[in-house]
Write a structure and sequence with these properties.
The chain is α+β, with helices and mostly antiparallel strands. The protein has 2 helices and 7 strands.
Length: 120
């Protein structure tokens, strides 16, 4: 019984620490972070004359993914952003969802300045 109680206390402490370290960022800030981070991997596919870019970035315990559609020039339209960590449900932006907003502030796992240069 002592081992199960000790395990429960450790899980509870870790959950509290994770919640206290949470940060607030807008989806547009997250998109900028993904584009500008030197460890981001980018792939590009063209289907039926439309070019899509797929971004992927892993920071500590957080996975960030983004999909964009290339528009005129070298501009991009953000289609999808996801922030995933093992301790919580994914945070997702979808351009086709009328409730999604690139400027909406969301609570994310730590995207600290040591691991990612993001402005607040």
């Amino acid at each position: 019984m002592f081992k199960s109680w000790k395990k429960w206390m450790k899980q509870t402490a870790n959950t509290l620490i994770d919640r206290l370290q949470r940060e607030k960022h807008s989806f547009s800030d997250i998109a900028r972070l993904i584009r500008e981070h030197p460890d981001t991997s980018v792939s590009e596919k063209t289907w039926l004359g439309l070019t899509y870019r797929f971004y992927s970035l892993h920071l500590d315990k957080v996975a960030l993914t983004m999909e964009t559609k290339k528009t005129k020039g070298n501009d991009e339209h953000i289609l999808f952003i996801a922030v995933s960590s093992s301790n919580s449900a994914p945070i997702v932006y979808r351009s086709y969802d009328e409730n999604s907003d690139l400027h909406k502030l969301v609570t994310t796992p730590p995207l600290t300045k040591e691991t990612a240069p993001i402005s607040q």
